[in-house]
């Protein structure tokens, strides 16, 4: 999906009031649909969903659900992953233009060329990839189980990790693995949350905990701050979005600085109303995630749109890698 060529104006003109909520719930019942929402969705979409969670949790819920239709309020690769796991179900995304700059950072052709340079390497792809890339992958992972996935691979095997360079650096740091090669992709939203900004915010709030998503450009700086004792190490936590919610529920901190997409703040504030959660960068908003508007959801349920299709042969090749992903690691938040 080439964002520059698409008109990305979201569907609008619908207010998320009580009548909207009643109509969405009625249509979901009528369609035998389960509504799933990622933690970066608009608050009103998170609140109407049956389940809100991180990528891993939502993939697992989608795979286990008895509903005949899955409405995925998230971005396209997430809905595609649900379709790969449940090819017989109808999978809808309320706006198929909701792409992902990270998933766009590697194509299947580029991956095939990279594999040819490293014969015998195990390919680990982040779930933020297209179905075609997953079809060339041995094991998929999400941010909540990337370390466990890589640790499950025999130490003497080379690993190709893609496409996120910051998550890759985090995994390399934690596993201490030298034979891990990392693709130089990034998410424009998380890459923009940078080290100097984090250091400045941490200096102004010395008692605050720091919750950092490993896709962030500032993850290395956060560990530097901890390593140098500038921020006590126990205050720095590198977490998937679901694990942030788990951490928030047990938090004793007065203030938590959150380095990830700003949609996350809604679940955190619900999970721990007594804690002051602040974004490290309040401009870190993913325009793709925010395309799932109240109007888009209503349209999707009314028109059975946008239906997600994955070529059956591509889905067959990708399924093993995605299944391995949902089998590895502790439950992601939202389950
Ligand atoms: P999580 O797997 O932590 O939910 O991360 C998600 C992400 O960046 C989706 O775009
Ligand atoms: Fe993709 Fe980044 Fe948006 Fe997540 S926040 S959907 S990785 S562009």
Structural class: alpha/beta
In which order are the strands of the major sheet placed? 2-1-3-4
Bound molecules: 1,3-dihydroxyacetonephosphate, iron/sulfur cluster
The outline comes out as globular
CATH class of the largest domain: Alpha Beta
Summarize the biggest pleated sheet.
4 strands, parallel
How many strand elements? 12
Q: State the end-to-end distance.
A: 30 Å
Protein name: Quinolinate synthase
EC number: 2.5.1.72
Function: Catalyzes the condensation of iminoaspartate with dihydroxyacetone phosphate to form quinolinate.
Keywords: 4Fe-4S, Cytoplasm, Iron, Iron-sulfur, Metal-binding, Pyridine nucleotide biosynthesis, Transferase
Structural summary, described in words:
The protein is α/β, with parallel strands linked by helices and 335 residues long. The chain has 3 domains: 3-99 and 288-310, 3-Layer(aba) Sandwich (Rossmann fold), CATH 3.40.50; 103-186 and 315-327, Rossmann fold (3-Layer(aba) Sandwich), CATH 3.40.50.10800; 193-279, NadA-like (Rossmann fold). Helix content is 41%, strand content 14%. It has helices at residues 18-30, 43-48, 55-64, 76-85, 108-117, 131-134, 146-151, 165-175, 188-191, 195-204, 219-227, 241-249, 264-271, 294-303, 312-327, and strands at residues 33-38, 51-53, 69-73, 90-92, 122-126, 139-141, 159-162, 180-182, 209-212, 236-238, 255-259, 276-279. The strands form 3 sheets. It has a 4-stranded parallel sheet with strand order 2-1-3-4, sandwiched between helices. Strands 6-5-7-8 form a 4-stranded parallel sheet. Strands 10-9-11-12 form a 4-stranded parallel sheet, sandwiched between helices. α8 links the parallel β7 (159-162) and β8 (180-182). 50% of the residues are buried. The protein binds 1,3-dihydroxyacetonephosphate and iron/sulfur cluster. Residues 75, 100-102, 128, 187, 189-190, 261, 286, 288-289 line the site of iron/sulfur cluster. The site of 1,3-dihydroxyacetonephosphate has 10 residues, from loops.
């Amino acid at each position: 999906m080439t964002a520059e060529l698409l008109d990305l104006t979201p569907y609008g003109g619908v207010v998320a009031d009580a009548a909207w909520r009643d109509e969405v719930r009625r249509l979901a019942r009528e369609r035998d649909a389960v509504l799933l929402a990622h933690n970066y969705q608009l608050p009103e979409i998170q609140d109407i969903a049956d389940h809100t969670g991180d990528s891993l949790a939502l993939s697992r819920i989608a795979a286990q659900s008895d509903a005949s239709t899955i409405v995925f309020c998230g971005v396209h690769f997430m809905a595609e992953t649900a379709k790969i796991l449940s090819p017989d179900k109808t999978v809808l995304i309320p706006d198929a233009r909701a792409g992902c700059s990270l998933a766009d950072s590697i194509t299947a052709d580029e991956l095939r060329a990279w594999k040819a340079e490293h014969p015998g390497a195990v390919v680990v792809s982040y779930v933020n990839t297209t179905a075609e890339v997953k079809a060339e992958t041995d094991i998929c992972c999400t941010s909540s189980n990337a370390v466990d996935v890589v640790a499950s691979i025999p130490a003497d095997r080379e690993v190709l990790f893609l496409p996120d360079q910051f998550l890759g650096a985090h995994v390399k740091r934690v596993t201490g693995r030298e034979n891990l090669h990392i693709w130089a992709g990034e998410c424009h939203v998380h890459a923009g949350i940078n080290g100097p900004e984090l250091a400045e915010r941490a200096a102004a709030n010395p008692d605050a905990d720091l919750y950092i998503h490993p896709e962030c450009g500032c993850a290395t700086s956060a560990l530097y701050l901890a390593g140098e004792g500038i921020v006590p190490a126990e205050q720095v936590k590198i977490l998937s979005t679901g694990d942030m919610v788990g951490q928030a529920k047990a938090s004793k901190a007065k203030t938590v600085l959150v380095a990830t997409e700003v949609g996350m703040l809604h679940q955190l504030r619900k999970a721990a109303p007594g804690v002051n959660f602040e974004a490290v960068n309040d401009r870190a908003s993913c325009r793709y995630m925010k395309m799932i508007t109240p109007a888009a959801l209503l349209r999707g349920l009314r028109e059975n749109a946008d239906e997600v299709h994955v070529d059956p042969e591509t889905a067959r090749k990708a399924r093993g890698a995605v299944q391995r992903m949902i089998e590895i690691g502790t439950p992601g938040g939202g389950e």
